[in-house]
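pasting for the record
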Amino acid sequence: MKKALIICYYWPPAGGPGVQRWLKFVSHLKSFDIAPVVYVPENPNYPIIDQDLVSQVPPDITVLKHPIKEPYKFAAIFSKKKTLQISSGIISNKKPSFLEKLLLFIRGNYFIPDARVGWVSPSVVFLKQYLKTHPVDCIISSGPPHSLHLIGLELQKDLHLPWIADFRDPWTTIHYHKSLLLTKASAGKHKALESLVLNTANHILVTSPSTQKEFSLLTNKPITVITNGFEPLAVKPQGLDARFSIAHIGSLLTQRNPTVLWEVLSELVKEDPVFAQDLEISLTGVVSDQVLSSIALVGLTNNTTLKGYVPHKQAVMLQHQAQILLLLEVDSEDTKAIIPGKLFEYLQAHRPIIAIGPKGSDIEGIINTTESGVYIAANQKEALKKQLLTYYSAYKKGALFIPSKNLELFTRKNLTKKVAGVIKRVTTAL
């Protein structure tokens, strides 16, 4: 059995999407003759906590922990709210205040590649000592935070172990990178580190075809697309929302604010009093103030339910109960490669998905492959309105459902099989 050291930042009790990928891979790796050893921070500053996920950690795996100094804890002295928003990726598109500018400038220029860079050196020292007596066959680093790839880089250099760099998101082309107020020198450092990681790792994992294409222009190293996925439910929740619920599960950042959707829904509410009574906009998770302002501006506040952050189990229940599931991405060239983890959980709910984002997004291919809903570009207002009316008509007849097919492609166990295949290839190639 091969043994793999997996370096992660997000781990239970962390909540949100970042924790799910390797928590689930780790749960299945032994089925494919891979023994995982997980390395995580001992005292992290997670923006979201979900204690329910702790019980999902397999009891028979080794989890190593080492202290981390979190600069966000210090920054919170100045503004706890602003610090939490920045650490969660919520960056306002309004003119930033002096404090916001200061925090973003410090984050972008003094912590390269990110605020966890101070964990790199102590982690390398700790892991080199551990690996002397507990050898492994390969190292896997998962980012963001992309500073964790620097741990993999140093261990590979010093110990000559094969190293797999897993990118859950792009590095320098992710949409919020431009908001960090980078100096020219800092932007150059990010690019240099990105290139170093991509050209030194033995194998690269990405979550989307677009990221694979982007990275292939920067390196000749092998790149494998392994998307996020879902865990099939043993017992599926019964019953749907009584109202015509359009549900978004997960953080709704300012940049993802679907103003075209609010405009269309407002028009439909004004045109049809019955639709107005039936409509419920259900938002679960962190929602930015700008999104709420947009909803209020078009008169939809009374149709909106804010559920806040809920444990993952409850989030899955809400997905199964919704009449329509809403998937949103920033309308930008930089986001075509982003496939939110929630898409795959949406798939197993077997509820119609309306996805709104940039034209040519990788999301569209998955929705089409699975026949799980529709993908609509952010500027296609009339197409969106027509689709909503189609779904509403089916809802009134009690016939709102979708066939969904090819879902087995995205089960965590099948995806873990691909991960195990990469591990076996890199460990036998050297």
